[in-house]
Amino acid sequence: MNCKGVVREISNYIDGELDAATKQEIERHLGHCDDCAMVVNQTKMTVDIFCDDQPVELPKDVRERLHEALRRKMQRSKS
Ligand SMILES: [Zn+2]
Fold first, then answer.
1. Residue 53 CB partners (closer than 8 Å, separation 6+)
2. What is the pTM of this model?
């Protein structure tokens, strides 16, 4: 699992929609990649605002904007 893989799976990871093996790979990556750990933390905070301790699903357009922002962020940090 590389940074791109983590970003691709990030919303599934936070939603808990991943199988155990993929989840484990992401967590292993987060253990040694500060960039991705930070992105996951920020995304979790963003999701928490929408969830507000209730299991509210992130609206699709918000989720897509989030994905786009994360993709851009990762591309910038790699260049
Ligand atoms: Zn990474």
1. none
2. 0.60
Structure-token pair, residue 32 = 């040694």
**C-alpha of residue 2 to centroid of ligand 1, in Å:** 6
Distance (Å) from CA 41 to ligand 1 centroid: 13
Distance between Cα 31 and ligand 1 center (Å): 9
Q: Give the Å distance between the CA of 25 and the centre of ligand 1.
A: 11
pLDDT in tens, 32-55: 999 899 888 888 877 665 555 555
> Are residues 67 and 47 in contact, defined by beta-carbon separation less than 8 angstroms?
no
